[in-house]
Every structure is written in C-alpha cells, then in structure tokens.
Amino acid sequence: MQPARLAAYDLACRRGDRLLFRGVGFELHQGDALQLAGPNGIGKSSLMRILAGLLRPYNGHVEHEGTLALADERPALDAHRPLGEALAFWREIDRAGEARADFGLEDLLDVPVRYLSTGQRKRAALARMAASGARIWLLDEPLNGLDAHWGASAQAAIEAHRALGGIAVIASHQPLQLQRLKKLALLEYLP
Amino acid sequence: MIRSLWAIFRRDLTLLLMGAPGRGGALLPLLFFLAVAMLYPFAVGPDAKLLARTGAGVIWVAALLAAILPLDRLVEPDLEAGFFDQWALRGIAEEGVLTLRIVAHWLSFGVPLMLAAPLAAGLLNLDGAQLWTVEVGLLLGTPGLAAIGVTIAALTAGLRAGAALGGLLAIPLTVPLLIFGAGSLQPGGEGGLLLLAASSLAALAIAPFAAAGAIRAGRE
C-alpha cells in the first residue's frame, strides 16, 4: 500500500478582489479525516479545488503523496448514457478494479443518468470515487441529497477507505459521525 | 495513459458522430451544408455558367458555416459536467484531450463534408476537375477549421452567450482558410492549396495549446 499524505501550508484564496481566507495549514497522514466547516460562501469549495490542484492559491502551497480524487457537485457522468456505461468510462480510465463500497446502484445501471435523482447521482459520484483507487478523497458536500440511510453508508465508505490507509477531506456543514475526525473551521481564518 | 486517451477518444467520437440529447451530432452540419448547396441555385437562377463559376466558392462558404454550427457543444457540456476537472485530477493533460477532440471533431464534420461534396458539386454544376480541387481543398482545410473550432469552443465555454460569441470569433479567424480554399479554384490558383495547407498546419500546431490554456484559465 503506497503511503498517503496531504499537507497545506499557509494557504490563502482570493476570488475577484475579495480575500476569502488566509493562513490555512494542516497535515494529514494515512487514515486521517478532516472536515472543512463553515457557512456558505466562506470558501470551502475553493479550498477543495486548491487542494485538488485545480485552483491556484493566492498564497501558500499544497503537497500530496498518493493519487487524488474529487467528488463535487458535478458528477462528470454522461447524462444520456445508462449509469453502468457512464461509470464504465471512468473505470476504464482508472483501472482500479471493482469498488469495495456498496452504494445500492445495481438496479440503476440501465437507467440513463439524466433520470436519476439528486441523491442517486450523488451516490454514483461517490461510487466513481470509491472505484478510482485514489488514496486521497476530496469530498465536497458528500451528504447533500442523501437520505439518512445512504448518508450513513457514505460515511461507512469513508471509514473503510481510512481503514485501508486512505485520507479523506470532507467539506460539509452537516455533522459527520466519523472516528477521530479533525475539524477545520474556516471562520477562524478570515482575513 | 494511452488506454485512458483511447477511452476518451472513443467517447468523443461517439458523442460527436452520433450526438446526444442537446448535442446534435454529425448530421446537422451535413444537412446544413447540403441545404446551402441546394438553395443557392434557387436564389441565383439556373444559369449553368454562373453556377459553375461561383459554385465552388459557395461550397467553401457552406463548409465554413457548417463548421461553426457544432461549436457550442464541442467543449462546453464536458466543462459543465466536470469532465475536464476529473481528467486534470488524473494527470491527463488538457493538451492531449483537446488534440483528440480536434481529431474527433474533424472526423465528424470534415469527413462527412468531403463525402457530401460530390452531391453539392452536382447541385452547383461543377465539373470533375473543380470537384477534385474542392475535395483536395477540403481535405487540407477542414483540419484547420476543426482546430480553430475547438480553440474557440474552449475559449467561449462557460460564457453567457458563448455560442453567439463563438460564431462571431470563428468567422474572422477562418477567413484565411476560406480565401485560400476558394482561391485555389480560380484559374491558375493551385498555389492556394499550398497556402491552405500551411494555414491549416499553423492552426493545428497552435490549437491544442491555446485551447488547453483557455480551459485552465477558465478555472481561475
């Protein structure tokens, strides 16, 4: 099992001419989970995209060992294709084998993605992430649209991922039932 | 990496050829191209000499406009759905993805136009030699049109009214291809084909980098 590590140093993010946060730093090792908390518009998603390397920070830098996977509000699944085919496209790119986590998608594999509900789409995006074999999971509001049952399943999948030495960063305003969960309240890093 | 790119290329080609709800497909530009070739004789009258003299130019104008039709679905839907972000996370360079998209776009509009050109030539009363020049010109010019199209699609993806802006941007950028392509049909204009090939190559060389830069800049 390759090592996993995610560290952020003195991150600041600017959107337009507004500084969202500054001085954000943390270090995560195998099995760690971090919750990014804070009200809407504080910069949780921007921080997520900085960690994913999709957005350049205004200041500071990010280091990571191990592959990254991001699940945000855009599932990157072809709306017109059946769910099974849309997921198979990413399986062919990731080639990481079958997902260990169960998101109850077996009955939906023939259904075109555009007919799926918000919660079902979310589960599909989480399944794609779980199947990607990535060591570091970046989850932006993973519980949005999920009912209590699948919310618990999603958290169980995160715990299973951590048990295998993975890292999870979760941006969520909802309380999470995860063991040894670190918290980072972005309100404390306002400029 | 190669297998990932192969999977992406197969998806691109299927989407661009067959289309999908909200994505059109290869049929629309083709029908548009033939419709222009069919309407032109109605508009200018059945004067065979006039048609033969101007028809090849009309084919080029029709090809250029047909290339603009699919612009708004070349990049925008994938950007919107998060595909480009997911590829970037997996370390697949935008340049590679967009090169494949140029090839897929060319296969789904350039090749059908070349196949439809004999029909258009018949409607416009072009002779065999002119048709041959048109076909060679399309073979040399449509890759450049595809490259410019993908670049503009990447530049305007995510903008409001991006589709309209894309069309407006494409017209001046594709004018050299039009001039050399249509010019090659004038008597003694064979040199136009070389210039056409040169412009096409220049567009192909720049496009993947310009389009990738546009996608990355759009993330900021």
Account of the 3D structure:
The complex is a heterodimer of chains A (191) and B (220). Chain A has 191 residues and is α/β, with parallel strands linked by helices. Chain A has a domain at 5-77 and 133-189: 3-Layer(aba) Sandwich (Rossmann fold), CATH 3.40.50. In chain A, 26% of the residues lie in helices and 28% in strands. Chain A has helices at residues 44-51, 83-94, 118-131, 148-163; strands at 5-15, 18-29, 33-37, 59-65, 68-71, 136-140, 167-171, 181-185. In chain A, the strands form two sheets. Chain A has a five-stranded parallel beta sheet with strand order 5-6-7-3-8, with helices on both faces. In chain A, strands 2-1-4 form a three-stranded antiparallel beta sheet, with helices on one face. Chain A is globular and about 50 Å long. The mean pLDDT of chain A is 89. With 220 residues, chain B is an all-alpha fold. Chain B has one domain. In chain B, 81% of the residues lie in helices and 0% in strands. Chain B is built from nine helices and no strands. Chain B has helices at 2-18, 27-44, 48-68, 76-81, 83-89, 94-123, 128-156, 162-183, 191-219. In chain B, helix 2 packs parallel to helix 6 (94-123). Chain B is elongated, with a radius of gyration of 18 Å. The two termini of chain B are 26 Å apart. The mean pLDDT of chain B is 90. Chain B: This is Heme exporter protein B. Chain B: Required for the export of heme to the periplasm for the biogenesis of c-type cytochromes.
